[in-house]
Amino acid sequence: MRQPGSLAGGDSTNDSLDEWSDLCSDYEDELRTAKRKKSSAYGIQPPKRSRLKAAVREVSSPSDSFVSTADLPPEKPPQVNTRRASPQHAARAKNANKNITADDIYNAVLSGKGAMVTVVDEWLDTYKQSRELGLLVLVNFLVQSCGCKGVVTEEMFSSQQHAEIISTLTKEFNEDSVNYPLSTPGPQLKRFKANLCEFAKVLVRSCRNSLVFDEYLFPTLLALLTGLSDSQVRAFRHTSTLFAVKLLTGLVEVAAHLSVQIQTLQRRYDIEFGKTAFEQTPERLEELHATISQLHDNREELASIMNATFRGVFVHRYRDKLPEIRAACIEEMGMWLKTDPEDFLNDGCMKYLGWTLHDKQSPVRLQCVRALQGLYKEKEFIGRLELFTSRFKERILSMVLDKEPDVALEVVNLLLLIQQSTEEGLTEVECGHIYPLVYASHRGLACAAANFLYHRMEWMAAEQKLKSFEKGAAAFIQMVMAFYIQCEFHEHAAYLVDSLWDVAGAELRSWETMTAFLLDENGIQDEEESALIEIMVCAVQRASQATPPVGRAHGRKILSAKDKKIQDQDRSRITAHFIPLLPQLLAKYSADEAKVTLLLKVPLCFDLELFSSAQGMSNHLENLLTQVCAIVEKHTDSSVLEACAHLVSSLCSDCYTFSSRAHTAFGQLLDTLSDCFNSYLSELLQGSADEDDVYHAAVALKRIGALSCAKDPTAWKLFDGCLQLLSSRVETTEVEVELMVSALKCAAFHLMWAKVNTVNSSLKQAEMKILKREVRSFCKVCQSCLSVTAAEIREQAFELLCDLLLLFSETSVRSEPELQTLVHLPSDSLRSEMAAFLVDYVFTDDEELNEVGEEAKIARLQKKRNQLAGYCKLVMYGVLDLAAATDVFKHYSKYFKDYGDIIKEVISKSKLINPVLSAKTVCLSLQQLFSEMLTEEQSKQDLGEIRDLAKRLAMSFGIDLHRARAPLVALHMDGVGFAFRASAEEELQNVPFLEILTEFSFKLLPKDRAQIASHVKSQCPDAALCWSPVRMYLRSLESRSKPKDHGEGLSAVTSDQNSPLPKRKRTTVNASALDSSGVHSSLTPVLSSTVLKEPSKALASGDHGGGLSSEPLSEDDFSTTLSTSLLPGRSQTSTRRLPTVRQADLNSHLTLLSLIDDVEEEEPDIEDFASDSSNTTDSQHLTTPSVLDTLFD
Fold first, then answer.
1. Res. 354: pLDDT tops 50
2. Where are the stretches annotated Disordered (predicted)?
């Protein structure tokens, strides 16, 4: 088959066009060649039509016929005598004009309101009356579907070659927009594409018994589609390729149906032929033989059409520049392979799927993987896929880490099919590529990996002759424990459980099996116990909450009534099962911090109403409370005490009738702890306590502080003792970190609960004054703690100050004026020390963190973020002045990665509070940075960093310049005033600040620019007007846009208007080649099917930009061939040489080229696809891009 890049050039434009017109006739040439081969293979045979008529005449009755008359091709229509038209013929022609038109079909496909079967039937009526007219209607419908305004007339269709028709249509293409129906965004695209594909499917189905074999409709239509698919106009190429491959899919289904008919009739013929001579019926044998011969002819005719379309469309377009075209080709290839394996399921076609696995676009890879799934689902295909599996298994395994989760998901499903269907399957090492994906953040991919893991476990259980998963969950639980331990992801059990939930939900809900393992004394080892407890707790939480873990929930999912019912049933089962067994588990593992912390989360998933409604639950509740109290008295770990506090908060909730019993139990626990602390308090204050006394007092306070989160501790009156202890330790500089941190927490919780009690009940003014005095005293102690050397004490004091100042602020009592007495405002010294804490300990890089692990760095950063957020809350709620935010704004650029989201939110909220004051605060932060720079050695680098900060802050003013007008003017006025403020040591040292202020000039309105410019000239001394910062600032006020660089002159932004600027870097062609290409004498665009050929001597002149290959592309040896078209390049030199009178023609031609894509192709060798980096598509081989094809990118 002749390739576009292999044609030799001629000297004249018309000769070149004639040569290129042969491309679209290659389709008919290949069909004729196939027919000649078929005739030589079968020898001398009677004509098909005569033999068919003879077979039909020999059929005795309709019931005896094996092929209905509808299945037989119709006879060719009789030739019309053109010498004189009869009145009847004129009437038929008049009625034909009223038949369906291209516009009718297009509107039906675009809207999708009518059934495609009806549309096709109406078109068939038109075609039956006049096949030329009917085919013309179909062609114009396809042209209109491409978004082209042109119309193919009857004269054009009968007298012009396909290449000439395509060239004419290209000139009449819609140049107003680069969009066409298949590229229109929105739901209309999906509807039109689906309807167009449905139209093609119904068209073939309606013609499968007759018109498919008329040797006119489909050969002619597919020949035109082949030419259009080779066009550089993207709309033509995309639409025609999609329609052609859909037609080919329909033809493949017809061919498969014919093969089944042939096999059925051949069996009947063999049965009839095997009978004795007495039983045989000669007429029957002759009838069957004629029918089988006719079906063979039809099958071979279809095969020739399919082969020509496959080589003319698919072989070129599966590597097209446009990923949508490549995806459509691969999707249909999957259908062909599955529908007609006799013709397609071979190594020659499977190689395309293997190559496309390396495509750079995820939609193409996705369609390729889905096509392979359809093949591996068929057991009879597995033998034919052995070579493909061995060749591309490594690539498929690497795709489980595809950057697109949807592709990786389908790859995992494909590997499961390979594992189940092939004899070799996957080795354990190969399966190891898939196992870690159960912890992926994409839930679909994780569930697919879990499905693979589940079936792998099931297969291993069958090999080890264990019980089936359906008969008992013990085998599954054991394997999950082993997998969880081996994977060493000990902190991600929630993700493993969520991944397995859909496929193994019944096994994970087997609470009886899990608790039996845990309560068995000789059952499992310690490591397995830890894994099982974590898996069990995560399964309990997943069943009761019905929500995926953090990172896997995409939006808020509303549970359906069915899911809600299942959730309630699971919670009831969990409660009924664990209420009697949980105290036993807590007692067994009470000494293990990690295990007991997890087990304490189980009661939070209970239906706690069951303690009140069910009978015999009082003993279980008493056992649970006893175990919780024992755990609190036994442990000092913060995680264990925090878990106990959460459980105490739930059990003491007033909504339950048993809450009084919980209050009593935990009240007694607090009595014991407070007595323990008070027994050591006097010795601690006197300084006579030893290390054991300090330890016991610290532990008691730590447990009280942990329980104070859930229960009111004010009744135990621990505040005074804690405050005295803190004051004595700060004054004597004796710092016991654990003791002081616990004392700070206990005192702070006392004040917080006192404020809550004040709101809930009316206190006297005297009591309020006492509370306010306590708050003031505690804030002084915390202020003293900000300067201690111990980081834990310092950070705890800062966090508690932020909480208490917000709790006792004016905003908190705004709705209750009677509580105004409780308002406490921070002193100036406290404000300054809190700001200094930010600068010293938050906005700083910890050098010691370089030696610790990544988890410690993340924990440290999170702690700093909490501290910064607490300080910012004080600013946003008015506890601190807005000017206090300067210490935050100054670090916006430098620490954007760590705190950028928090600082951005503060800037946004400050604009809502007071826009003008917020802008002045921004200016003040820049002024402070500039002043700090002046105190040190001034450098351009420091000034550049401040300018970068100013750029980032300027973007926070948004795009509504009228709304930001007053704040921006205030900012500039403050900045100008600061710049011309003279100091005692040096006059006008702040003038360089105007360079920083230029970053805000582009946000000003023109009226304000002039006003500020006049203000600058009035404030600036005459001698300073010529200084560089002043001139730069005035230029920024005069300009309409943001200055790119203060060092640029006007010459840098202006360009020669006579020389057009290219949109991107392009290869250039010398002037002689440009002149010889005939681009100025013709408006025909450079299309691969309508290109004007270059003279041979021009190609031999050494022009590397548009060389054409003289060798045809071989589909047998898959040689790498690069065929390129010579497009008119331009450079400034060659453009200036063009005559002025031809400039308009060039511009017109370039406008036409805006519709053109480069679709040059390169046949890749199979070895080129060994890795992702070797994936080559046409977008990588474009050496001569069109002038305006960026409209399509």
1. yes
2. 1-20, 34-96, 1039-1084, 1097-1140, 1164-1193
